[in-house]
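[agent] plan:
  1. take the single chain provided in the ticket
  2. run structure prediction with default settings
  3. attach structure tokens to the ticket
  4. add a short note for the reviewer (M.T.)
[agent] executing step 1
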Amino acid sequence: MKLLRRRAARVETDPGEVALHARDVRFDWTDTPLHWMPGEPVASHLINALNLLLPEGERMFCAAYGEALPHVKDEKLREAMLGFIGQESMHAETHDKVLREVLIVNGVDPAPYLRQAEYLFRRTLGPDPAAGDQHLVERLAVIACLEHFFAYLGDWVLNADLEGFDADPRVADLFRWHGAEEVEHRHVAHDVACYFGVGYLRRVAVMALVFPVFLTLVARGAKFLIHQDPALPDLGYPRLLGHISTAMWRGALPSVPSLVRSAISTLRPGYDPGSVGSTAQAVAYLALSPAARAVAS
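[agent] step 2 finished; step 3 output follows
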């Protein structure tokens, strides 16, 4: 049983098809603490680990879609891909600023972890003309799997009671703005993968690889941040996992069972990304996001 209830009920009125576009945002990171949920330092670092992974990952998404676009003749899908690229580019730029204006300012040197992220996303998952078209298709399949989890996390953060943990409102808005756009464009990566012939068996195989690797990378990112945090002991993995489990039970993190159920849902032959989250709720939040409104005002 969780100590905190979910933050808000979903908005259920379906707005219909939404044209994707990048939203400019403005964050002031002055004096943002590393422990942006003061009573949950490990949970703060685990979520902050996404700031280490996301910029390089989302740049890879954009590069792969840039390669794929010339092969797409469906104008509706092309339009969605261009909107997706615009949103992911803004996500990468915004999280990159967090690295410089929050982590480095608070004494964390992200460079060692970032070098590993660069190797993964630029070399392992980057373009390789010698590998042929199937290398691009495999990358599109990986993106579709990752985007499922990003939509899941977006739905979670939109409904999580972060305020119950006295979360810094700027960091909460960062992840809710990003999460809302992940929910909003959750269908695109799946549709692109299907367009390029990623069938059921390949989707299952790629998900079986991506799911544990993604969890491992986030856990390693959290351990990396904790190691550089003078306010915390240098936790080994067993103790770190214990702290993470406690934070999950409290509701400061999504639970492992819900993550596993989410992964398993993609194995259904009729899997539809529309089952993850609510477009109406996402659009409603994006209309109210303080960072987006700061630019509009």
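[agent] step 4 note for reviewer: The longest helix spans residues 75-103.
[agent] ticket updated
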